[in-house]
Design a protein that fits this description.
single chain; globular; about 50% helix; Rossmann fold; 7 strands; about 260 residues; alpha/beta; binds nicotinamide-adenine-dinucleotide
């Protein structure tokens, strides 16, 4: 379905981004991976995906807190893979602390990685998407783009911002073949969430498995984690012709978190 399209997926060396890259690759898209990690492991991942799905796969180590590195990543993808038709703004970080104790440098890092990077990447890919009158921009926001939780001031502010940005881009592109939407995951068991589970276990002096169940019970009525594969499947659907009129949406995949 996505043969001859090329996708950049930021933060695709781990977690949700990797699940999305795998789904887009399985649908035939060429991929530009991005993220941090061990160079040899990333190269094995890159070569493995290319072989498994028979698509071209590149890698950019761009630090997306740096606008000039985002622009270089888009240029590299265009040069190496021919175009950028799909942009998935996925990379993100978390920091938890009460607002009056929130370290300023963590605030700045969360806003730049989780929000400003989306703006810089969208700005960099739009000219070529407009020239072809086709594009798909998928921003991985969060349930925290629509509701808050305590001790996540920067994350909640950034993710609410991502949804605002998504709507604005969708409106500006409404008369074109370019759509922009946000996916709002609830809990997905990735390294980002494992850290929060481990911190909870330590804080409360309980086993990790119990901390995991409590974390789910508190917010996610299904009692189950959503998965990177489910995010990938929705992303592929948003890239399809069937989704051409889904524009500016914030789509929860959250085990009924937001239904409460
Ligand atoms: P993760 O920690 O498993 O992966 C994050 C990825 O981003 C990694 O590949 C990492 O290398 C990359 N990254 C981090 N900082 C970067 C930077 N400065 N430049 C380039 N790459 C960078 O996290 P995840 O849980 O897969 O999260 C992915 C996205 O999904 C994030 O935006 C997160 O906010 C969002 N999200 C996650 C959950 C969840 O429950 N896991 C829920 C809602 C939203």
């Amino acid at each position: 379905m996505l043969k001859n399209k090329t996708a950049i997926v930021t933060g695709s060396t781990s977690g949700i981004g990797l699940g999305i890259a795998r789904s887009l690759g399985a649908a035939g898209a060429n991929l530009m991976l991005n993220g941090f990690g061990d160079a040899a492991q990333i190269e094995a991942l890159r070569a493995g995906l290319a072989k498994e799905f028979g698509v071209k796969v590149g890698f950019s180590g761009a630090d997306i807190s740096k606008p000039e590195q985002i622009r270089a990543m888009v240029e590299q993808a265009t040069k190496e893979l021919g175009s950028v038709d799909i942009l998935v703004n996925n990379a993100g970080i978390q920091h938890t602390a009460p607002v009056d104790e929130f370290p300023e440098d963590r605030w700045d890092a969360v806003i730049s990685i989780n929000l400003s990077s989306n703006f810089h990447a969208i700005k960099a890919v739009l000219p070529q998407m407009k020239a072809r009158n086709w594009g798909r921009i998928v921003n991985i926001a969060s349930v925290h783009g629509l509701v808050a939780s305590k001790e996540k001031a920067a994350y909640v502010a950034a993710k609410h911002g991502v949804i605002g940005l998504t709507k604005t881009v969708a409106l500006e592109m409404a008369r074109t073949g370019i759509t922009c939407n946000a996916i709002c995951p609830g809990w997905v068991l990735t390294p980002l969430v494992q850290k929060q589970i481990d911190a909870r276990a330590e804080r409360e002096g309980i086993p990790v498995d119990q901390a995991k169940s409590e974390l789910l019970a508190e917010k996610q009525p299904s009692g189950e984690f959503a998965t990177p594969e489910q995010m990938g499947a929705l992303c592929v659907f948003l890239c399809s012709d069937a989704a051409a009129q889904i524009r500016g949406a914030a789509l929860p995949v959250d085990g009924a978190w937001l239904a409460q």
